[in-house]
From TrEMBL:
Name of the protein this chain belongs to: M23 family metallopeptidase
Location of the M23ase beta-sheet core domain: 159-250
Residue ranges, annotated region (Disordered): 1-21, 99-126
Superkingdom of origin organism: Bacteria
Start-end of Basic residues biased regions: 11-21
Native source species: Streptomyces katrae
Pfam families found in the cross-reference section: Peptidase_M23 (PF01551)
């Protein structure tokens, strides 16, 4: 009996050892099934008839197949995430490049606009400079009726110190060039007259005016109206007496026709 008891005890000991080894062998497989997939696959096996239950070897193979499937899913997910990250990065780069191009286009447009504005301002300044340096005829569409230096008793000096332009009473009289009015009022034999000192230091005088449009100290531009022609003072009829001088005083007169032509006025 003692022998049988030992044999029975020895047999149970060996059976327990085999079960422990098998359980330990599948522990690593169970660890792979972290999502519970292996447990889900094993549950129907326990519910089925023992005669159709898979062997431990089959269960292990199934677990390995499931583990391989999980690995494939992880790799696919990782690849998808990588592709998504690359797409986001590409979009961000494209947006950054678009912003850079837009900023560059804006700078180019602003630089072009500035250059055009500066060119327009420069052209306007040049035009203004030319206009200020331009000389015009004192009366539009007129002609010289009495030449410079003509003799006769009408002039106290014995000769004509200016030229007379034909002009009906009330014709507009213009400043021939830019300058400052130094005299505007009654001038004795000149009647109502205006004297202008020009930017080049010369002077012009406009006599026998019916009325004045400027006053002393006022600046004028080429072609600006300074009065209306008339027949005031020592005059035989409506006309404009025009003189050119190198100084402000009487006796510094020069040929007015030559003066105007030298300043580009075609008469």
């Amino acid at each position: 009996m003692a022998f049988g008891s030992r044999a029975a005890g020895s047999g149970k000991h060996r059976g327990s050892s085999r079960l422990s080894r098998k359980t330990a062998g599948f522990a690593g497989v169970a660890a792979l099934a972290t999502t519970g997939v292996v447990g889900t696959l094993a549950a129907p096996a326990f519910a089925a008839d023992n005669s159709s239950a898979p062997s431990m070897e089959d269960t292990g193979q199934n677990a390995i197949v499931v583990a391989d499937g999980l690995q494939d899913d992880i790799e696919v997910q990782a690849a998808t995430q990588q592709s998504a990250a690359e797409a986001v990065a590409a979009q961000a780069q494209a947006e950054a490049e678009a912003k850079t191009r837009a900023a560059e286009a804006k700078r180019t447009a602003e630089a072009k606009e500035k250059a055009e504005r500066e060119a327009a301002e420069k052209a306007a300044q040049e035009e203004a400079r030319k206009r200020l340096n331009t000389f015009v005829a004192p009366v539009d569409g007129s002609y010289v009726s009495t030449q410079y230096g003509a003799g006769g008793g009408m002039w106290s000096s014995g000769s004509h110190t200016g030229i007379d332009f034909h002009a009906d009473e009330g014709s507009i009289v213009h400043a021939v060039g830019a300058g400052t009015v130094v005299e505007a009022g009654w001038g004795g034999a000149y009647g109502n007259n205006v004297v202008i000192r020009h930017n080049d230091g010369t002077y012009t005088q406009y006599g026998h005016l019916m009325s004045l449009s400027v006053s002393a100290g006022q600046t004028v531009t080429p072609g600006q109206q300074i009065g209306l022609s008339g027949s005031t003072g020592n005059s035989s009829g409506p006309h404009l007496h025009f003189e050119a001088r190198t100084g402000a005083t009487y006796g510094t007169d020069i040929n007015p026709l030559t003066y105007l032509r030298n300043h580009g006025v075609g008469i």
